[in-house]
Amino acid sequence: MFAEPFAPHGGIDAYSARRTLGTFSMDFWQLFLRETLQNSWDARAKVTGAVTFAVDAWRLNGAQYDALRYEVLRERPAGSRVDGLLRGEAIDVLTVTDVGTRGLCGPTRADLASTGRRDFVDLVRNIGRDPAKGYEGGTYGYGKAVLFEASFCATVVIFTRTLVDDRPTSRLIAMALTQPYDLDGKRFTGRHWWGMPDPETGAEPLTGERAERLALTLGMNRLQPGTTGTMIMILAPRIEEDDSLRQVVEALGHAAADYAWPHLTAPTGARPRLTVQFTCNGQAVPPPGPARDQRLKHFVEAYRRCEKVLDGTVAPSSGYPWTVQEVQGSRPVRRLGILAWRTHLPGAAGAHERADAEIALMREPRMVVEYRNVTPDSSGQAITGVFIADPALNDDFAAAEPPTHDRWQPRRAQRQRYARNPVSQALNRIDLVFKDRRGADRADTVEAGNRPGITRLASLLGSLLDTQPGGTDPRIPAPGASSRADDSRFASPDGRSTTGSSTGTAGRASGSVHDGGHAQTGRAGPTSPPRRGSVAVRFHPQARLALMPNGIPCADFAVDLDTRSAGGGVVLVAEPLIAVTDGRPEKADDGTTVTVIGWRSRDTGEFQPGSRLTVTPATASAWSIRVTQPTDAAVTVAVRTEVGTA
């Protein structure tokens, strides 16, 4: 073991080295995955080559534990966490491996000048990032602190296979950080290395066959013969009290899907491929597939549309449901990047939560920097999009990132005091796209006459419910409210014969449907079950827009059923109506076709085609009614009981 003493002229201690990450805006294991994965990707051996990135976690067996304790870490700082750990019995480890990368090449001494790459000393010896390398990764820079923060004892073992003078070279070395301490009248920084004793560097890496043999004994066997790359073992990964080792691996897999999906979904030949693998105790832990994930699939499509514009394959365009546009800067006028976005039916956000509205920000190397929240859609739809910084401005956007690479901070990219900042301009213009859109949706302008019917009605009714907390209308009675309204088959909170709206902000209906095909509604009173042979129906205030697989637009109306008093069975009938702005909803005329496609259970996924649903006390309570959406009209839907069925 070599413990680094402070030089007479001073130095940086291990505690300060661990704090170089600064603050970060995400879960720690997300940060860990992002930092390690981006550096692995940037370290690929060939720009057009493929990289395999693997995370493996397991508990060391007896032989692996003995090799770690008696061969690698024979001497240990007295009273340190790593010393206490190796006096115990069982140790969990987590390894991060990249294959198809350069490995840690270059000299092993930091004081020797060299004209080539210095990846080994940048990771193992130095603190910080060499500015000569620009903004590429592959050597961790300040981000190396994430490796030590991930370990309970701030200890890692590094095994790499690289090329030195075009010859394969294997290297193995261990590192640990502790608090600074005094020993025998000397002051030590808290930085430690284990390897071959050396009178000048203190410790040099094991090399050649000895490094290969010890790596295999430790279980670091991801680097197959003939390949290059790096494998880093984290001793005793930090696990929260209620978590398990497998949950940490699962979290890392989800983080890879969230932030590296542009590479995980890249079509063959279009961009270098990245393969990710995750295991825990020898069993595979597959990450989510971005192209199939309900949240990520729209981001994937937006990314592909941005790429086509950047490649010059297609021009920016705007056509339902996608908008693809250039984001332009001023003074000088230049392209800052490409923005592609769309609105769509919200996923699993829940009926009473606001829909997500976020844009994935990225640059080279095509890792998501941040999901930026933008102004939500006024009709309750989700907004999903991607912004890719123009390649000519990549260095500006890279300079705006803190060591954690988790956001763009424009002040970091300010090169001259009064110069226009492209990062600030890009973020402001992205925000304005959606602020202006929200304002346009709320205004009843002449333009509304040229919009599809559903948008026109949203403009007229959007302010009615949009500001209600939880997305519900306080005027809607709870199921079972029993004040008598007018003798109408359809009822609404205001007593008019409208029961819903496909605007997404103006679903305005509720009422309990009972025998005889009549509905009860009124002001909310004491909640009680409907009487025998009846079903209470409550509409959610926001309808959802969707496209069917055949491309036909439709609207989903969410309803909750109180089935406690359904008795032997009640048949509910959904009837589509055309919403008008100056009167009651009407049946569609011969020129407008609106049909009920069916009822779908939001609890079980069960689908009942057609307008009728037979309800018993055992029927699921949460349903959606799907109706076709004409391009020139706004639809509502009403629910009644079929006479004689109760």
Automatic annotation (TrEMBL):
Residues 399-422, 464-534 are annotated as: Disordered. Residues 490-512 have a biased composition (Low complexity). It comes from the Bacteria. This is Uncharacterized protein. It comes from Micromonospora purpureochromogenes.
